[in-house]
Amino acid sequence: MDLENRLFKIAGNLTTFNMELNSLKLTYNQDLKRLDELEDELSGLKNSFGLENSDDAVERAKIIKLKLYESTGLKLDPERREVLVLNKSANKTTVLKVNDNYSDYFISNYIWANI
C-alpha cells in the first residue's frame, strides 16, 4: 500500500512538473516573440531618425553640439585649438587658445565670463 501511495505521489509530482515546464516554455516563447517585436521597433525608430549605425548617431550628436555652441556665441576651431567667443551685447569678440595647461574649469569660466 505504501508503495502504491508513493507511486501515485510521484506520478502527481511528475504531472505538476510537466505542467510547470510547459508553462515556462510558453512564457519563454512569448518573451522571445516580444523581444523580436521590440528589436523591430527599435530598428524602425533608428531608421526614422536616420541612425542606421552608432557612428551616425555620434556624428549627429557632434553636429547638434556645435550648433548649440554657435547659437550661444561660440565658434570652435579644433585644428588651431581655439575657441572664438562672441559677446553680442558688448559687440566684442575674444579668442581663447586652448592648451593642456588650462583646466576645464578655467575654460568654462572664461567662456561664460566673455559671452
Automatic annotation (TrEMBL):
One of its GO terms (cellular component) is kinetochore. Residues 21-48 form a coiled coil. InterPro entries: Ndc80_Spc24, Spc24_Fungi_globular_sf. It is found in: Nucleus; Chromosome, Centromere, Kinetochore. The keyword Coiled coil applies. GO terms for biological process: cell division. Keywords: Cell cycle, Cell division, Centromere, Chromosome, Coiled coil, Kinetochore, Mitosis, Nucleus. CDD domains: RWD_Spc24. It holds the Pfam family Spc24. Component of the NDC80 complex. Belongs to the SPC24 family. Acts as a component of the essential kinetochore-associated NDC80 complex, which is required for chromosome segregation and spindle checkpoint activity. This is Kinetochore protein Spc24.
